[in-house]
Amino acid sequence: MKASDETYVTPIYILSGFLGSGKTTLLAKLIDYWQEAGLKPAVIMNELGDVNLDGLLVKQEVPMEEMLGGCICCSIRGDLGVTIHELIQKEHPDLIVVEATGAANPMELLDGVTETALYMKLDIRPLITVVDSAYLMELFDRQQGKTYRLMQEQIRCASVLILNKTDLLDSSRMQELLKLLNQSNPYAKKIPAVKCEVDLAELLVEGEGAQGATDEAGDQNLSQTHSHYGQSDSHNHNYTHNHSHSSHSHDHSHEHSHDHGQDPHGHDHHHTHSHVMVHTHYLSGPVDSKAFEQLIAELPRDVYRAKGVLTFSDTSSRFLFQYAYREPDFMKITPQGDIPDVVVFIGEHFDKEELSEKLKALEAGTLLAE
Ligand SMILES: Nc1nc2c(ncn2[C@@H]2O[C@H](COP(=O)(O)OP(=O)(O)OP(=O)(O)O)[C@@H](O)[C@H]2O)c(=O)[nH]1
């Protein structure tokens, strides 16, 4: 069956995982894998900030829709259906991958995709969560409130867990991690990995879960199986989409009242990420690499993710900058098109003002002197 056929049921994969866990790393590998199999994947990327730097890591020929400036599971959830619809109409992809911002609650996201599957022919595939193994263990030790709980939700929803960044854990910590994950989600297949280096055929097959019954013959690469969520038979029904998004909306009113620390009343907050803050700073020109490295080394603990595109005054190339779990990473890039120099910081209740001052000093060349 071809993607351009009216009857084609488009498989849709959701990649979940905390900020900086390795979702984009996995996405790049999946795209290669599918393309080698002669398939045309399309991507929906969601970023909290207003620039999509992860998109720079995805090949240019892959159709991509960006959903920026909000979290896909919450503030821009209503747009998800429209985005999926447009992508299918325009590109006729063989499959779609949604890479959600790491702050997204996958249950909400799944709900959004499910809603869309009521009026579009979608086969929702079992959810893959990429776990930042080292960061999860650190938070487990500290039993840190909301971030830890969000990670737990991302773990609980998954059919497959990629335990990424195992290079940062020794074997006894690894055993602890497995024990922890077996408690949180005994059903999911757990695959340890470094840089999401996993057997992708196994990953995608394992993701089909215990049910495993195929209802479409012939298409080996994309067999239509029943997912854990009972959604895959959505293509047997031709629902009219006659309910408004608002009928599925959730009560957001509690969101800001429990922003600090644990909720002593044990309320089950769906929007655990409401405390996540984003600070975007467009740079006025090249900056000194040493000064930038210092700024990064001095970032408060509450900034747990940063990305950017930078030009350094003391090097000739431009760089894609990544910072996750306090590890900075620089990759030489030659971006196509008009990509500004920009840095995006993501974290919890950090002092934006102070960071902004430091960035200004960096631009002015006075940071090291301070
Ligand atoms: N040490 C280590 N670093 C890794 C591993 N996998 C990925 N990284 C690094 O972690 C950073 C984040 O990786 P991404 O793939 O961009 O993570 P992401 O989940 O897409 O990040 P967001 O889109 O911000 O949520 C990059 O600097 C990667 O090079 C790993 O197995 N070990």
TrEMBL record:
Biased composition (Basic residues): 238-247
Cleaved signal peptide residues: none
Biased composition (Basic and acidic residues): 248-266
Catalytic reaction(s) noted: GTP + H2O = GDP + phosphate + H(+)
Entry-linked SUPFAM superfamilies: Hypothetical protein YjiA, C-terminal domain, P-loop containing nucleoside triphosphate hydrolases
Record keywords, A-Z: Chaperone, Hydrolase, Nucleotide-binding
Residue ranges constituting the CobW C-terminal domain according to the UniProt record: 276-363
Pfam families per the UniProt record, alphabetical: cobW, CobW_C
UniProt-annotated stretches for the region Disordered: 211-275
SMART domains: CobW_C
Compositionally biased spans, kind Polar residues: 220-231
Keyword Flavoprotein annotated: no
Protein family (similarity comment): Belongs to the SIMIBI class G3E GTPase family. ZNG1 subfamily.
Name listed for the protein in its UniProt record: Cobalamin biosynthesis protein
Top-level taxonomy: Bacteria, Bacillati, Bacillota, Bacilli, Bacillales
